[in-house]
């Protein structure tokens, strides 16, 4: 049974075979009158995809299809949808596909923090159906979580904005990143490279931090004003005492981040915010005394409105994130996951050529 009853994707059948994905078919989620069906054209590859198929967070459903940076074309609109979207529109879906939409958090634009959060893949809806992601022919999503894509952003450059991009944009925006602010970005990978671009476009002065100097040239090319190789300079924090307003930690693990040093760099009232989602067993180490006047927190994804705001920032400033493309399919997904596992990507992957792998009717 092809679309609309069944979707086809590139899925992982068990966590010990995370690096041997297969072509799979699976039942589509039941169509709700508020749902929109999207024929997928491009999907970004996010660190969460790898954490999920490697079982770092929770068990996975059978034939797990990940991918939550989806760009595609609207092919069906539910009868009760209120959105302005039309058949044929180019749209995006990020890491969240549902929340209750009525609680206080949802009302104030904090949908990612709602207790009824459903992520794009590997989370059950109320009826028990476990969501499936974007390495697939189609996705079926509540209209609230479908956003239009501005014309001047290419699909492969738009996809990574929908999860990775908004995850770093949201804490920058919410904490006042802008002209006159000193912003530190720690960890220059997929997330960190976007954070440099956005913080600069928002008008801030940017310090890029990485352990070694091998990211220096890229960081400066991306627009960073300063670069610090933290494992190569003794007492690097001494030159930055009480200097930074925000430090955004974009590393994939907090284990090697010496938070005590960053705390010394913070202005009073400054904020250290992590967007890292490490292995579930990882713990923070901090010396409690140093925390005087400094805030530390985690940030979740961004809301649909923040995705729209980020797309506008990128469109208005013609920001080009750095993306490598791979064709979707068993081979391309295997390469994306295994290279991401080694950190071998500059700086995000987007899967393309969906029409070849999933021929259009
Ligand atoms: Zn809610
Ligand atoms: Zn993600």
Automatic annotation (TrEMBL):
Against Pfam families, the record matches this protein to: ADH_N, ADH_zinc_N
Cite the SUPFAM superfamilies for this sequence: GroES-like, NAD(P)-binding Rossmann-fold domains
Name of the protein described by the UniProt record:
alcohol dehydrogenase (NADP(+))
Q: Which InterPro entries match?
A: ADH-like_C, ADH-like_N, ADH_Zn_CS, CAD-like, D-isomer_DH_CS1, ER, GroES-like_sf, NAD(P)-bd_dom_sf
Q: What is its EC number?
A: 1.1.1.2
**Ranges for domain Enoyl reductase (ER):** 19-345
Parts of the chain that traverse the membrane: none
What cofactor does its activity depend on? Answer: Zn(2+)
Name the PANTHER family on file. ALDEHYDE REDUCTASE
The family classification in the record reads: Belongs to the zinc-containing alcohol dehydrogenase family.
Q: Which reaction does it catalyse?
A: a primary alcohol + NADP(+) = an aldehyde + NADPH + H(+)
Keywords of the record, alphabetical order, are: Metal-binding, NADP, Oxidoreductase, Phosphoprotein, Zinc
Question: Which GO MF terms does the UniProt record name?
Answer: alcohol dehydrogenase (NADP+) activity; zinc ion binding
Q: Name one GO biological process term.
A: alcohol metabolic process
Q: Which CDD domains match?
A: CAD1
> Which species is this UniProt entry from?
Maudiozyma exigua (Yeast)
Kindly state the subunit structure of this protein: Homodimer.
Q: Does the keyword Zinc apply?
A: yes
